[in-house]
Amino acid sequence: MKVLVLAVLLLLLMPVKIQFGNAKTNASAYDEKLVAFEESIFTARKKSIECMALNIYHEARSLSTAGRLAVAQVTLNRVKSKKYPNTICEVVYQGKHWVAKDGTKYPRKNLCQFSWYCDGRNDLPTNKKMYDQSIELATQVVDGKWPMDITDGAMYYYANYIDPPRWTKGKIRAATIDVHRFYRYKR
């Protein structure tokens, strides 16, 4: 989201073309840079949607729209926080990794922010209908079409069918939506 806002600001603040010498050459170079810039914005947006959709799918696919939206909102709240990485994908894939001999990074089992990423199972979606719904919701969230935070600023959550994790101490329960309990820092 920060990347998208920055990109829009750059487009708005981009200086007006001043052409010296061969106007055709300058215009062409400018247009090529603009096209490359627009393509990078599109690629970043698409990647953010894919990461968000996978997180929604694996963390909340069987939940109501509110439950899926709440998981997405926690991801966005972390992106906005100084305590977490700056992009949706970096937040989703945050955790300890090990590096194979070929240089490929793999998550360490059970040492990541979202359990599906490091549980040792295949992360490819198997339910097309639910994944398509996850992509649709992720697109809306990334595009800012759900501006209200229904988690009241939550940065964490856990499923109510497990014992409360240690990290809940010192935090406030902000919401309970479907099977998830959402927590935030004291304000």
Detail the topology: elements first, then pairings.
Blueprint: H1 2-13, H2 23-60, H3 65-80, H4 88-92, E1 95-99, E2 105-112, H5 128-142, E3 156-159, E4 172-177, E5 180-184
Antiparallel strand pairs: 1-2, 3-5, 4-5
What distinguishing features does this structure have?
disordered N terminus; single chain; 187 residues; alpha+beta
What can be said about this structure in brief?
The chain has 187 residues and is α+β, with helices and mostly antiparallel strands. The chain has helices at 2-13, 23-60, 65-80, 88-92, 128-142, and strands spanning 95-99, 105-112, 156-159, 172-177, 180-184.
Describe this structure as you would to a colleague.
This protein is α+β, with helices and mostly antiparallel strands and about 190 residues long. Helix 2 (about 25-60) packs across helix 3 (about 65-80) and helix 3 (about 65-80) packs across helix 5 (about 130-140). About 25% of the residues are buried. It has helices at about 1-15, 25-60, 65-80, 90, 130-140; strands at about 95-100, 105-110, 155-160, 170-175, 180-185. Strands 3-5-4 form a three-stranded antiparallel β-sheet, covered by helices on one side. A two-stranded antiparallel ribbon has the order 1-2. The chain starts with a helix and ends with a strand. It has one domain (about 1-15, about 25-150).
